Amino acid sequence: xxxxxxxxxxxxxLHRYGISxxxxxxxxxxxxxxxxxxQGFPDFGPPLLLIEEVKRAFRDPLMNQYAPMVGVPALQEAxxxxxxxxxxxxxxxxxxxxxxxxxxxxxxxCLATWVEKGGEVxxxxxxxxxxxxxxxxxxxRVRCVPLVAPGWEPDWNRLxxxxxxxxxxxxxxxxxNPTTVVWRREWWDRLAELAQRRAPRAIVIxxxxxxxxxxxxxRHVSALHHAYWGSRSLSCFSFGxxxxxxxxxxxxxxxxxxxxxxxxxxxxxxxxxxxxxxxQYALARYLDRGEGLAEVRGLSDAFRxxxxxxxKSVSSVPLVWRQPEGTYFIxxxxxxxxxxxxxxxxxxxxxSAGVAxxxxxxxxxxxxxxxxxxxxxxxxxxxxxxxxxxxxRAYFDGLGGRKS
Length: 404
Ligand code: PMP
Ligand code: GLN
What we know:
alpha/beta; Aspartate Aminotransferase, domain 2; eight-stranded mixed sheet; four-stranded antiparallel sheet; 14 helices; globular; binds 4'-deoxy-4'-aminopyridoxal-5'-phosphate; binds glutamine
């Protein structure tokens, strides 16, 4: 077969997919010189002390060789202490924590471990972009359940309809990208009650990469906290989010079930074998120091301040800004001032206002009509947020109340 580039080509399992909306908007932002509040990454770096630890690790020959398959023991222990002290979850570090090449790999490996051909996976929409293709690659069947705006609570009737003996996994993401909603304890209870009755084999894959980015009065409720799900789930976390290093692609999985963790590791060892070693040694040392824990404890306040800078700079912009519950994103409803599909509006804003954001429709298999939200990332320096605010004000002032 001959593909688009003219060379030999055989159709792959995901041939229907193009590049992700995050890559697409970042490319557009770069090409037109827009402030990039689209793809979620900070424009500031990791703490300096952590960088010092990274340099030390890179200088040590043995720290540059394969790490143990499940992770460097000192890091497993540091992770167990971190989640013990900040989330109140006690785990045996060596048996129940596995270091991964980021949360995406952790989630993919969970799917590869449990989803067989025809196995069903519940995905709440809007959904982070890797979930659906991750299921499809395994030959599984995605069963979508909407989160209903504006509170983004799951559609429980639909959930009841899709759960069955065939359900192998339910993917939950809290705090949620892109809506920012934080799962309530009652939602976990309701999910458990429905699953116990209709899908007793189901396990939860809980994507908790923003666990430490939750804003008062909301609190992070992990699958690991829950009486039913605690023993039937794996929670996935990301150092990229914890220490402003999305490019490191390092994360970890925690499960209170050693049986589930053992099965996960059997696949993990053949997907990556082990994750980046020097970064693991550096993170272990950094977390062992008081500063590491202090940084994590301060994350929510630090990001709250960034959000405040952004909200102040866009206070006169006539979009309806939805207070985030968690994550480093904020949704804006543009329905009152702009017309058109969200993808086109996002492109127009990037080209004409010089600020890039992410439309919500790519987070759906079939987007509902009339979606009028854009997602902005506020994990940026004050200068960046203020510049974005200036550009948005100038653009909307220029429209002068006209709907464009
Ligand atoms: N899950 C969610 C909800 C995310 O927003 C992201 C992206 N940052 C990831 C997973 C991926 O995390 P990682 O970069 O560690 O693979
Ligand atoms: N998680 C990031 C976001 O939601 C993007 C990660 C990626 O580009 N794949 O923007």
